[in-house]
């Protein structure tokens, strides 16, 4: 294992600590106050600076993510609100959407409220507010590497309606600031089912400020509802109370490989120093051929959404007009793969 600038064997590390959690690992806890009361968290600490809060109560999505104690992700005003407060109709999703590093949208609907074959669907579907079952959090030695993983299942089903099951596995290694997500979605029903899926990654201050830059994979890019220059999608602005949200679509050129987008901050806080930090998001372009970019530099909602998807965000009815949505045959399944990799350059002491 590479840790603290040196290679170690398992036994060398075990000789230096009473318990490996001194360095890092996974730990389960439950929140106890206000609308967050009863929400379970699984906190992952990599030992290399990255900390993640995975939330079984909300579909094994990822809430706060921080590097060296400073946030990478954006948090909504709702915090980690318990899914019991979820309002499924219209735009009620916004009242309990946690923000955080990842909010999953789906499994049968994404985007604006719509009428679907299964009835009315609210904004972005139900999966972000569905508790996971069969949840397992593990630490396993593989030679001299300690592998952590969190997995479980999330279901969307209705009598006479869709019956989809998502099995999610999030994993990584101690000493490495990376994570992998493998999502297997299966149609357990006996009729074809819509499968709309969007991974709503949310990045915020201090990763985002006017010095940050954003890079995208080769794609055809346009802004929703606007013709003309799309240069704004690669830069960031200071908070503006008058700013509104903007949505850019990036239709990937290459759908045979993993696609990659990157947020780079040249002066990320690293204790008394700053470091150049790059956050690279990679995903399986064959199953998620579109990147939706949500650009919201408004005051109080200062967030960049990078959202690999198999659909757009105008809702089911609009998706049908565009020739979609993706349909899963009875018994069929699809696997979505995503990775987040964080790299840091030499830290510079602030004067």
Account of the 3D structure:
This protein has 351 residues and is mostly beta strands. It contains 2 helices and 26 strands. The strands form 6 sheets. Strands 11, 12, 13, 14, 17, 20, 21, 25 and 26 form a 9-stranded antiparallel beta sheet that branches. It has a 6-stranded antiparallel beta sheet with strand order 8-16-23-22-19-18, with no helix packed on it. The protein is globular, with a radius of gyration of 20 Å. 41% of the residues are buried. The model has no long low-confidence stretch (mean pLDDT 95).
Please summarize what this structure is:
With 351 residues, the chain is mainly β. The protein contains two helices and 26 strands.
For the structure shown, list the relevant keywords:
26 strands; 3% helix
Please write out the topology:
Elements: E1 2-3, E2 6-7, H1 10-14, E3 25-30, E4 40-45, E5 50-55, E6 61-67, E7 70-71, E8 102-105, E9 114-116, E10 119-121, E11 133-142, E12 145-157, E13 163-173, E14 178-187, E15 193-194, E16 198-203, E17 213-215, E18 219-223, E19 246-252, E20 258-270, E21 273-284, E22 290-298, E23 301-309, H2 316-321, E24 327-328, E25 333-344, E26 348-349
Antiparallel strand pairs: 1-2, 3-4, 4-5, 5-6, 6-7, 8-16, 9-10, 11-12, 12-13, 13-14, 14-25, 15-24, 16-23, 17-20, 18-19, 19-22, 20-21, 21-25, 21-26, 22-23
Q: Can you tell me the overall shape? A: globular
> Which structural class do the helices and strands define?
mainly beta
Biggest sheet record: 9 strands, antiparallel
Could you tell me the strand content as a percent range?
over 45%
Radius of gyration: 20 Å
- What string gives the helices and strands in order? EEHEEEEEEEEEEEEEEEEEEEEEHEEE
Look at the structure and give the mean pLDDT: 95
- Tell me how many strands there are: 26
Oligomer: single chain
Q: Helical content, roughly? A: under 10%
Point out poorly predicted stretches.
Answer: none
- How many helix segments? 2
Q: Could you tell me how far the N terminus lies from the C terminus, measured between alpha carbons in angstroms?
A: 34 Å
């Amino acid at each position: 294992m590479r840790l603290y600038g040196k290679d170690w064997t398992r036994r060398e590390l075990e000789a230096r600590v009473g318990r490996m959690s001194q360095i890092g690992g996974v730990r389960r806890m439950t929140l106890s106050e206000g609308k967050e009361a009863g929400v379970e968290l699984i906190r992952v600490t990599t030992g290399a600076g990255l900390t993640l809060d995975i939330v079984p109560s909300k579909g094994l999505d990822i809430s706060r993510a921080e590097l060296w104690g400073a946030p990478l992700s954006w948090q909504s005003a709702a915090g980690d609100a318990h899914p019991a407060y979820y309002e499924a109709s219209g735009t009620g999703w916004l009242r309990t959407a946690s923000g955080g590093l990842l909010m999953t949208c789906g499994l049968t609907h994404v985007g604006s409220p719509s009428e679907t074959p299964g009835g009315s669907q609210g904004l972005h579907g139900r999966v972000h507010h569905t508790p996971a079952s069969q949840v397992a959090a593990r630490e396993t030695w593989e030679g001299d590497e300690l592998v952590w993983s969190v997995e479980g299942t999330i279901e969307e089903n209705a009598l006479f309606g869709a019956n989809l099951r998502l099995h999610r596995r999030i994993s990584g290694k101690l000493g490495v600031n990376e994570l992998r997500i493998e999502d297997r979605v299966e149609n357990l029903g006996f009729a074809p089912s819509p499968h709309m899926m969007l991974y709503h990654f949310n990045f915020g201050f201090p990763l985002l400020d006017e010095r940050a830059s954003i890079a995208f994979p080769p794609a055809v890019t346009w802004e929703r509802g606007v013709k003309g220059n799309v240069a704004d999608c690669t830069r960031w602005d200071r908070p503006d109370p008058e700013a509104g949200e903007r949505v850019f679509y990036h239709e990937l050129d290459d759908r045979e490989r993993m696609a990659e987008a990157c947020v780079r901050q040249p002066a990320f806080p690293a204790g008394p120093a700053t470091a150049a930090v790059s956050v690279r998001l990679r995903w399986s372009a064959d199953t998620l051929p579109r990147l939706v970019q949500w650009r919201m530099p408004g005051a109080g909602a200062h967030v960049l959404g990078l959202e690999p998807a198999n659909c757009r965000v105008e809702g089911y009815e609009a998706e049908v007009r565009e020739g979609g949505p993706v349909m899963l045959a009875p018994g069929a399944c699809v696997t979505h793969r995503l990775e987040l990799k964080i790299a840091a350059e030499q830290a510079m002491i602030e004067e």
